[in-house]
Amino acid sequence: MAYVTRLRGAVAGLAGSGPLYSPDDAPPAPVAIAFGASVRGGRPGSFVEGRLEAALRLYRIGKVQRILVSGNANGLSGDEIEVMTRWLRERGVPDEALLTDGAALDTYLSCVHARDRFGIDRVLLVSQFFHARRAVVLARHLGLDADAVRAEAGCSRRAWVRNLAREYLLSRPKAALDIARNR
């Protein structure tokens, strides 16, 4: 019965998780998490680049002091962490402002690692609108004080449709189960 109650709560939470801020309007936090995604040929894909641009903006305007790049260092498309870290360094972010987590294979693990490995309790989660809301629900479930910051993505309509379908058909149901099971 408790499992069903948690599952219902998770599904309801995934339907709406509070405001989605622009970088300029976001409340301050010590750290922003830029979530990894596909990289190609040593360069960030459009979704990752949008996340990095938003995280960089947060850093430059003083909303955050550090950026945690979180993703898969051994992904099929390449080392997300190396690509993301290099992109930020090339734009002037010093090493002491960068945290890296190359073992976060999904959003849930990104949040767990932020809390348990890096001692983060207040965070801005940077991603596209469809992913950011799910990330906030997972982070708050894990006890993080989290807000979502919207990242843009200059990609094709086909890529948007594919990612939206993945989000609503696969990722959100998985997140609801993660919460219900207290994975």
TrEMBL record:
It comes from the Bacteria. It comes from Tsukamurella paurometabola (strain ATCC 8368 / DSM 20162 / CCUG 35730 / CIP 100753 / JCM 10117 / KCTC 9821 / NBRC 16120 / NCIMB 702349 / NCTC 13040). GO terms for cellular component: plasma membrane. InterPro entries: Cell_Envelope_Assoc, DUF218. Residues 35-168 form the DUF218 domain. This is DUF218 domain-containing protein.
